[in-house]
Design the sequence.
C-alpha cells in the first residue's frame, strides 16, 4: 500500500527566508503533484511532476522529483506572506486501472512579516 | 470552462436526515472521486469511480452511497446523517493518466454541518 508522508506538518517562517517541504512516498511512482489550499478554499494545482529529475518553478516556488529516492521537494525562496497556505503532495500509484491519487497529510505554512 | 461543479456549497442537516451532494464535471474525465476534509486529518477518500457504471470504496465509505450513471455526474448520498459526518466535502476528477498528466481537478467544496 502506498504511503505518502510530508515533513514538516507545520512550518512558521519569516519573510525573506528560504525553506523546503519534503514529500516521501513508499512505493515506486514517477508521477507526483503539488497542491495549494488557502483557508476555506479548495485545492489548487501547483506543479505536475511526471518523471525522474523533473523540476518545475513558478515564482518563489520550485518543485523537484527524485523517483529513485522516492522523494519530492517543494522549495520556497525568499518567502512572502502571500505564500501562507497549506501545501499537499499527491502521488500516483502507477497501478493499471487504479486512478486514485494518495495524498500526504499537508504542510501548513505560515509566513510572518 | 466550468471544470468541477459542486452543489450545495453549504448545508445544515439534522441527525437522521438524508441528502445528496451533487458533482458534475465538463472535462470528459473518466475518474471522479469524493473526499472529506477534517481538521488535522488531511484528505480522506470516500468513494471513487473509474467510469460510468463503475464505483468503488475509498478509505472512509461508511454512511455514504454513490452512483455513476453518466460520465459527467457523480453524486454523493448521505442516507442518515450523523454528527460525525460534519465536514468539508470535495469532489475531484482527472483524466486517464495513461493519456494525459493525470492532474486531479477539485470542486469548490461543500461544507456540511450535522446537528
Sequence:
Amino acid at each position: 500500500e502506498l504511503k505518502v508522508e510530508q515533513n514538516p506538518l507545520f512550518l512558521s517562517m519569516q519573510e525573506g527566508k528560504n525553506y523546503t517541504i519534503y514529500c516521501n512516498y513508499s512505493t515506486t511512482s514517477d508521477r507526483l503533484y503539488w497542491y495549494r489550499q488557502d483557508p476555506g478554499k479548495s485545492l489548487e494545482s501547483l506543479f505536475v511532476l511526471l518523471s525522474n529529475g523533473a523540476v518545475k518553478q513558478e515564482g518563489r516556488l520550485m518543485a523537484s522529483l527524485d523517483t529513485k529516492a522516492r522523494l519530492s521537494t517543494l522549495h520556497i525562496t525568499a518567502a512572502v506572506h502571500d505564500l501562507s497556505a497549506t501545501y499537499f503532495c499527491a502521488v500516483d500509484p502507477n497501478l493499471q486501472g487504479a486512478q486514485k491519487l494518495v495524498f500526504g497529510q499537508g504542510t501548513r505554512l505560515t509566513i510572518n512579516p | 470552462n466550468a471544470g468541477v461543479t459542486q452543489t450545495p456549497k453549504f448545508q445544515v442537516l439534522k441527525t437522521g436526515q438524508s441528502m445528496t451532494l451533487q458533482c458534475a464535471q465538463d472535462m470528459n474525465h473518466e475518474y471522479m472521486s469524493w473526499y472529506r476534509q477534517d481538521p488535522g486529518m488531511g484528505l480522506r477518500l470516500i468513494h471513487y469511480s473509474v467510469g460510468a457504471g463503475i464505483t468503488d470504496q475509498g478509505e472512509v465509505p461508511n454512511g455514504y452511497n454513490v452512483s455513476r450513471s453518466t460520465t459527467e455526474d457523480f453524486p454523493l448520498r448521505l442516507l442518515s446523517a450523523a454528527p460525525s459526518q460534519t465536514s468539508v466535502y470535495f469532489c475531484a476528477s482527472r483524466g486517464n493518466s495513461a493519456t494525459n498528466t493525470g492532474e486531479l481537478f477539485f470542486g469548490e467544496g461543500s461544507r456540511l454541518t450535522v446537528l
Notes: The mean pLDDT of chain B is 93.
